[in-house]
């Protein structure tokens, strides 16, 4: 159970701060929801409390774990399938895991691939989504703004 003010990660969407816990009736069913504000785009997301475990919500990483993210971003590209479809599915599975190190791995691999060969429209969209997820969590952990985090990521991968 999380509390108001907690910084959490919603896999596939990114990190945010719980602003409220409210009971709402949607489609005739009353449920309690976390109301989470995301720092990027200032979007609000409602997350049903009764499906928190299924969704895979977790707390944001701590400042020590940021070092592991930096190591992954600065590391060598992992071997990816040559087949676009297999590569896409493998990367999507990593993003869906909610593990920031897996997301950082996808971001690094796709940025390197983009620099070498370019990306398809689907992979470019995936890169943007994965980067947003990564940036949203690092913004909350490092207390930096979005542009600073993006510069940091780009400088590490070079």
Please give a quick description of this structure.
Helices cover about 50% and strands about 20% of the residues. The chain is of the alpha+beta class. The protein has two domains: about 5-60, Thrombin, subunit H; about 65-155, Methane Monooxygenase Hydroxylase, Chain G, domain 1.
Which keywords apply here?
158 residues; Thrombin, subunit H; 5-stranded antiparallel sheet; 6 helices; globular; 2 domains; alpha+beta; Methane Monooxygenase Hydroxylase, Chain G, domain 1
Structure in words:
This protein is an alpha+beta fold and 158 residues long. It has two domains: 7-59, Thrombin, subunit H; 63-157, CarD-like, C-terminal domain (Methane Monooxygenase Hydroxylase, Chain G, domain 1, Up-down Bundle), CATH 1.20.58. The protein contains six helices and five strands. The protein has helices at 52-55, 63-74, 84-96, 100-116, 121-142, 146-157; strands spanning 7-10, 14-26, 29-37, 44-48, 58-59. Strand 3 and strand 4 form a beta hairpin. Helix 3 packs parallel to helix 5 and helix 4 (100-116) crosses helix 5.
Task: Give the count of structural domains.
Answer: 2
Uncertain regions spanning at least 5 consecutive residues: none
| Basic shape | globular
Q: Give the full name of the CATH homologous superfamily of the largest domain.
A: CarD-like, C-terminal domain
- By DSSP (H or I, 4+ residues per run), the number of helices equals 6
Please tally the β strands and state the result.
5
CATH architecture of the largest domain: Up-down Bundle
Q: How much beta, percentage-wise?
A: 15-25%
Termini separation (Å)?
39 Å
Mind telling me the C-alpha Rg?
17 Å
Strand/helix succession? EEEEHEHHHHH
Helix content estimate: 40-55%
Q: What can be said about the biggest beta sheet?
A: 5 strands, antiparallel
Q: Taking all residues together, what is the mean pLDDT?
A: 92
Determine and state the CATH class of the largest domain.
Mainly Alpha
Spatial sequence of strands, sheet with the most strands: 4-3-2-1-5
Label the structural class. alpha+beta
Q: If you consult CATH, what is the topology of the largest domain?
A: Methane Monooxygenase Hydroxylase, Chain G, domain 1
